Amino acid sequence: MVEIGFTPTVRRQYPEGVALRSELASQALDWPTIERYLAGHRLQMDPGVAPRQLSGGLANLNFLVRINHNWMVLRRPPAGPLPPGANDMQREHRILFRLWRTFALAPRSHHFCSDAAIAGAPFLLIDYRAGLSLRGDSIQPLPATENTGHQLSNMLVETLAQLHAVDLASVGLEALGHPQGFFRRNTLGWIKRAQLIANGSLSCPAQTLAQWLTDVPDPAAGKPVLLHNDFKLDNILIDPQTLQPRAIVDWDMGTQGDALFDLATLLSYWSEPDDPSCMHRLAQMPTLQPGFANREAVANTYSALTGRGLEDLKPYRVLTMFKLAVVFQQLHRRHLLGETKDPRYADFGQLAEDLFEFTLTIANDKIL
């Protein structure tokens, strides 16, 4: 493998405000091979501009590159075995190759490469969008005021409602995914993932939840919508002045299905002051900061904006919380297998088990 920085000529200034990893901390890719491949598709990497890995994120690798005099992002999955259906670059390309035409918050995808020999895994090239990404539970560099929290709460719900209003047929995505039987298929899929990680021996809370999800009646099927499938604050790039969205990123799990799944996914990341410690340790969004609405208010606002009822929200709440716990189990497994040296991953196993416990509380009607 060849280290980043293969063109040591004049360096172009990177976009202002972009968060980059140091060259030493960036994942090494075979950039000369990538450059030759792209040139064969009329995608010329600008000389003297060293690709750099963007900071943040726990899974997919994102590199800022300059191609045909435009800033783009090369995205590929992480190293090691991938869970079924996850980190799907081809799916992301299919969505973003079309969606940008009518949904302004979708960056355009320019190219998909299925040949893993080029960059170590399939990859795609999408437009770079400048914007502030608020990662974790910190609101910096924004002021931690009531107004900031209120604006961000409203922005999240309004943006989700706008996404779910997209006419799939108008962008050629009416055949995306399999919306029929969406809840049951996802339930069985995530239970299977949990069993695979646990080698068939689920913890007691996880087993109880798996049985609950197996027994609960399927929610009533509404009109399918375009789902992001991981809708949360750090997957939205925002204008730091207006706090309005500039782009929604990370579409590798996008599909078509029940809108309540995306709403429940957002709520699964939404911590409240009275939550158990696992939801504080989760630290996925800064909703504990002043001014943020609570989960009930978020759900009610979404219902008011879209006209969708919330009668069937609970099964999706349990499913998406179960899914979240399994995801952290998957990340912890990467730590155990030595596929990542990120110290954060070491505690994800216990976090996952605590999230299963909290999800039992939701299943027992004690909390939204």
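Above is the first protein from milestone M3; the second protein from the same milestone is given next.
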Amino acid sequence: MKGAKAEEASMGMLETGFTTTDCLQEVEIGKKLQGKCLRIVSPESPAKLYGCYAVIMVLTVAVITLSVTLSVKPSIESPGSYYATCPRNWIGFGSKCFYFSEDMRNWTFSQTSCMAQEAHLALFESLEELNFLKRYKGNSDHWIGLHRESPEHPWRWTDNTEYNNLVLTRGGGEYAYLNESGIRSARDYTHKKWICSKSNRYTLQCPEILNPG
């Protein structure tokens, strides 16, 4: 009986030993699988991390670029379209402002009145300006800035530059005015309305949004 029990105990120990070995083998297999998993996952994890870094860098650069773009103010010197902003009761045309009087005085008083407004009796530099003055003045005669010492002398503007005779001045007077037909001349004592002109110092620049240039 004792021999049989010992044999059974030995067999039990053998079975227990076999089972333990199997467990050890399974542990080893698990370690190997874990190593394989680590080897598989490890190369991917840095790649994903680097990808995140790259995305963050791209977003950072985009934010900085946008901030710089928004912080830059348009320069006053940048090209654009110019629009006249003349004082009250003055009319803008091109780069000038014009004032058409309602009173009637002689040429000398008219020039003095224009000078008091930091202007002078009107001068024109092109047919477009002349046509504008003729059209806007209506039917009344208006003094302009042409004058001469005598019929033998050339016509000059109030800034003392010589008139280029773009349009001929008719009549025998020393002071020019505009009427319905063109430019005429008369004596200083004649009373007429007048036109003042001055360079537009209030010109504003508006950017051409639709034309990036």
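Note on the second protein: The radius of gyration is 49 Å.
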